[in-house]
Amino acid sequence: MTESTVTSAPSTAAPNHGLDNWRELAISQQPSWQDAAVHRSSLQELSTLPPLVFAGEVDVLRERLASAAQGKAFLLQGGDCAETFDGATADKISARVKTILQMAVVLTYGASLPVIKMGRMAGQFAKPRSSNDETREGVTLPAYRGDMVNGYEFTPESRGHDASRMVWAYHTSASTLNLIRAFTQGGFADLRLVHHWNKGFTANPAHSRYESLAREIDRAVRFMEACGADFDALTRVEFFASHEALLLEYERALTRTDSRTGLPYDTSAHFLWIGERTRDIDGAHIDFLSRVRNPIGVKLGPGTSPDDALALIDKLDPNREPGRLTFITRMGAKNIREKLPNLVSRVTDSGAQVLWVTDPMHGNTVTSPNGYKTRNFDDVMDEVRGFFEVHNELGTFPGGLHVEMTGDDVAECLGGADPIDQEAFLDRYESVCDPRLNHMQSLEMAFLVAGALSRR
Ligand SMILES: O=C[C@H](O)[C@H](O)COP(=O)(O)O
Ligand SMILES: C=C(OP(=O)(O)O)C(=O)O
Ligand SMILES: [Mn+2]
Predict the structure, then answer these.
(1) Which DSSP category does 161 fall into?
(2) Do the annotations mark residue 195 as ligand-binding?
(3) Per its record, what are the GO molecular function terms (predicted)?
(4) CATH assignment of 18-189+236-455, among 3.40.50.300, 3.40.50.2030, 3.40.50.410, 3.20.20.70
(5) Complex-level ipTM
């Protein structure tokens, strides 16, 4: 692993690589901190804390993503819509990592490709919102913007924007990442163990339609065993951390100069993405992320024109560097077959090679009749199918899946083979922002996607 130097105060770091240009540009979705002194001291503290990831790991990820862009690997990126500080417990973190590892084994089999495992974890604490405020029973307060900004509790104190939460987010990210590293390096990721967990999924009669694929995987594992495969070498996996780079002050304070290359890396995570609401081509987010060496994602909604996509490539990946840029499309099941082909064709014709990933969640959000923000499992799967159809038709690579999911038995998305109905929301809806696939729905999606990948 490579050492990165730790700069003292970011604003005085030299050379600066234009890392503060964003401060002069239009910026949206930022907090209004209530206490200037706390704001100053929090950023000062963040700028001296150790990096959360190392530049060498970030470089490895860029290589992995480059192979996914060429159809030689597949990205699985998943986790909460919004992580919470209270939710950073051993049980919840292990359940999420476990579910991602289980999904990855199924996808590896289906795709016959390495699966790059990445959590929306260890830093996914800031949320862009459609509205600045929330009204409940006649009382209006600032909207919840993620634990890095304010609390979910609906009181004026909790909803105030408190900059010390950025430091809290750093420490929660550090402890989450530490546990993820321990699990994925310490034996928890053993292929035999993960395979054993997956047997629990098909034991449920509701999942009998997935039995034949599960049996095939079982036979493959036995075949490996019979051939004398070294299972002890399969007890560790690479696992990368990612989040939306929304609060640029936080990202800036954790950006450090790599001592090997002298180049800036945002050490808050391996991979950062820019959301649909903050990808203004002349805005602050695009400018800042264009200047760090990490692989970058951009969410593309149904309103994205091919020219928008080409302009993003020019800004974020001017050298057309393999693995640098990932487009995460979130068109909605109704739009994807109409909107995606032109986008992909124009980008492909331009000679750029980006990694195409589907986020089948954010274009399919609806309100249930009993008032919960939800998604239908069938709509989510329809968008995934549309994504594969479009890429198959064009001969391009459907390179990955980006999902909001949890390892817990929550009820937030409707449907699935063992269906969740809206009545279940009353007891088991836990998300503080968008609805997530629960453990079983996540595995079901992996089985369905594995089927699609194996038919390619
Ligand atoms: O996760 C994405 C956004 O933060 C979320 O969908 C916004 O939700 P809202 O429309 O309820 O603000
Ligand atoms: C905010 C998110 O998505 P989008 O930018 O696609 O709306 C998200 O991924 O939680
Ligand atoms: Mn979300």
Answers:
(1) -
(2) no
(3) 3-deoxy-7-phosphoheptulonate synthase activity
(4) 3.20.20.70
(5) 0.98
